[in-house]
Amino acid sequence: MSDSRAPTWWQREDLNYQNGNLHFAGHEVNGLAKRHGTPTFFYSAKRLTDNVQRLHTALQKAGLKDRYRVLFAMKANRFAPLLTHLKGTGLVGIDACSPNEAEHALSCGFRPQDISFTNTSLSRNDYDRLNRFDGISMNCDSLTCIRKWGEMGRGRNIGIRINPAIGLGRADNDKLQYSGANTTKFGIYREQFAEAIALAKQYDLTIAKIHFHTGCGYLTPQLDYWEGIIKECLWFVDQVKDTVKVVNVGGGLGVPHVAFDQPLDLDAWAQVLARHFLTRNVTIEVEPGDYLVKDSGILLLSVNTVELKRDKTFVGVNAGFNIALEPAVYNLPFQPLPATERTGRKQRVTIAGHINEALDIFYSDIELSPLQEADTLVLINAGAYSTSMASNHCMRGEFKEFLLY
Ligand SMILES: Cc1ncc(COP(=O)(O)O)c(C=O)c1O
Question: What pLDDT, on a 0 to 100 scale, did the predictor assign at position 72?
């Protein structure tokens, strides 16, 4: 991932260098590292609010006014202060994907009616627990789920997660797609939809919502696919047009990771929704994780080693892919930034973690101002799917988290 075209593409009002020192959310990053140590995640409360607000503005501008709801996909980040902050904005509900997540959302102040639940492969115990959260909105992802949820309580509203057999993801990355040419475990396909409707009828369940989530990290170049997915989804909506009140279009809205990523044109994205849904009597739900939290979070690391091996200079840091796995697992690079920009010739380096795994590389081959042992290094875009997916691999799972106001 070599990227030297626009080295400051990431710069913004609350993330920039001042006199050679990186500042984030009104704080000098070196000061944060000194006070709290590393590895530590910091999230900007203001950036979170701004991201939510931007999404609302786009939906309103497109004419959806009071006909939409934004849910935060808490699988992206379940840090309680962050969830409580989001709840405090009054602008989001929650997309939960396990009974524990649903309960955690309740503990952070959300109400059952604020929660939309979508999961796959639920156990009897999962259904029992979900059944206790009166008012939670259930999206059934399979015929089995319709049957089991129906057995637990007839006569209620359900959502059905469909699989439109078209997927999308940043840079058309297959690993980020949840539906597409390959058959996936997610949702009910066209060919089984009639069976789903019949099963719902058998249990006196009303199909009030069509739900789909087709992929992650999509940006402006993927908007044509986005429109294709919406058109495909309309077939499903039409099959249940007498009862459907809500269409949940999932998450997947991305943010740039490198200079040549074209940011998502939110207005164009929202206009696709308006174009296809304004004439139908439905409310739109959107459940982003990434878009709301990814660029609100940074990870502070310390440099342990700087060493030339053959033709590569490796900068070894004090954390590994197990606490921030998107670069290694999904090929989503986190731009590294030295907390202090030293003068002198830039060095071409590869940032490596401290885990004994070959894939433990945060960024390959990038030009940075010279780094030395004990320097603080920042990874940006670390706010989503880092801590929530962290493991204790090699017993190196420790990190701290702070929400900055
Ligand atoms: C059902 C569902 N909704 C929403 C999301 C959030 O996706 P993203 O963080 O890409 O917006 C996911 C992510 O896996 C998901 O599975």
Answer: 98
